[in-house]
UniProtKB/TrEMBL annotation:
This is Chemotaxis protein. GO terms for molecular function: heme binding; transmembrane signaling receptor activity. It comes from Clostridium botulinum. InterPro entries: Chemotax_Me-accpt_rcpt (IPR004090), H-NOX_domain_sf (IPR038158), Heme_NO-bd (IPR011644), MCPsignal_dom (IPR004089), NO_sig/Golgi_transp_ligand-bd (IPR024096). Residues 353-387, 566-593 form a coiled coil.
Amino acid sequence: MKGTIVATWLNTCRKIYDNQVVSSAMNSVGWKEDRIFSPIENVSDNDVKKIMKNIADSKHISVNELWRSIGRDNILTFHKDFPAFFQHENLYSFFRSMFDVHVEMVKKFKGVQPPIIDIRPISSRKAILKYISKRCMYDYCLGLIDGSKDYFKENLKIDTISNKDGELILELTFEKDIFYKKVYKFNKILSLGFMKNIASKVGVCTFLISSILSTVLFGFDNILKGCSISLVSSLISSFIVFMLLRPAKVIEDEIKKINDNNYTEDGEIVTGDIFENLYSLLKKHRKVIRADFVGFKGVTDEMSTFVRNINVISDSMMRTSEEISGVVEQVANGAVNQAENTQSAATVLNGNIESLKEIVDTENKNKQQLEEAIEKIDNSYANVDNSSKNIIESLMKFKEVRNDGVELEGKAHSINDIVLIVSQISQQTNLLALNASIEAARAGEAGKGFSVVAEEVRELAEQTQRAVKQINSNLGEFVDSIKMLVNKIESQYFVLEGETNNLQEVRNISLDATKSIQTVSKSMIKTIDDLSRESDTIAQIYNNIESLSAIAEENSASSEEVSANVSNYTNEIKNLIGNISEFKKLAEEFKDKLSKYNI
């Protein structure tokens, strides 16, 4: 099957049913739903049958019903594509022209084998139609007949005589006369079944009439004479008729020339009768035909020139469209790559942004912890500073205690000196008491009282001496204890002084470290804030890239659409070039046909 008729069938199915059913049926045999069929393309019959079976099953109808509905609707499609084929007065004349259409289609499309439709009248309103098709598409033919009678708005009775061996024979009954046959009995009788010459017919007729009249007038006695007269009359009449009919031979020759497409010769006959009028009518007809064919040949020359110019333009358009198609395809590929790269970059950037957000969140938490740590460091430094101040204050008090201990040791030594003086006084008192006792002993009774006092003084001096020794001993221990305490206090003082110096140094270092940490922390906080702002900026950039990605996808889709449109445009130009070629072939065929007419 040729691609044109298959495309027509599928478009009809899309119109009668729906696109989804037809697209699904096309996909079932591996065809794309937007497939474009070439007029000279050969399509597999089996694929077409499978598609029609699929459509019929989808719509729950038989394949025969589907083909009949397609045929009925195809008449409208054929009328749209080939309106000249439908320029007939009635349905019968349309059917009668189908054989000529078949011949033209075979000439136009090499290898095509359309069905043969032949119709022969059998009465004034009846005809036998033969539909010959090796594919046995009888229901499609019946659908075409239904569509044809609907188009010409005629009632038609259809009776099937036979449908076998690829041949469908129908008896069609029309509502109007389609054929007439006029029989001239007198002419037929005079021919006697074998004579075609009018002069002979007139001679025979004259002979018979003359013979009858002579017999009636002269009787049977003079029959020989009558027959002679009749024979002479018939010969004379035949000769006269022959001479009168000589222009008919010229007219016959003119008609043969017209049938042979010869319109070159021009002439005139003078008869003074109907033959002169007939020749004049033929001459007028030939003149009209000659003028028409001169115009036709001029039109064909213009068509040939037009086709050549269109071919030049179409070739230029084809080259330009191919160049544009190549550029658009590159742009489309670039747009697709850009869209993919932009989407990939957006995806990567989105992942980086998410990671950056996590880092920012972590750094914000670290920022809070750092601020808390700085606050603790500040508090710690304050505590260290306070402790340092307290230790320094304690050190000062320690120093005072040490000084007090030294002073106390000095006072203890002073007391020791006093005790030593008391001890010396006690010793002297004891010596004085001893001397007093001696003097009292010398005085005797008079010195007893003084002796008692001296004894008491001596005892007191001894007690004092013992007390002084005890005090001196205790005081020595006390002084030693104070000295040891002072030494310990002095030792701890020096230790504390060293530690205080170390603590002061630590405080200073802590101060420097705190300041450095504060500087670093401020820098880190500023960096975190900057990082947060940059994160927001990058997020905004991501949104912009998302927008760019969407725009890139739109551009990609637009580029692909433009590429598809350019491809369609290129295909349309190819189709146009193909149609121009077909038009050129038609023009050449028309020119060849016109060349047969000699004007």
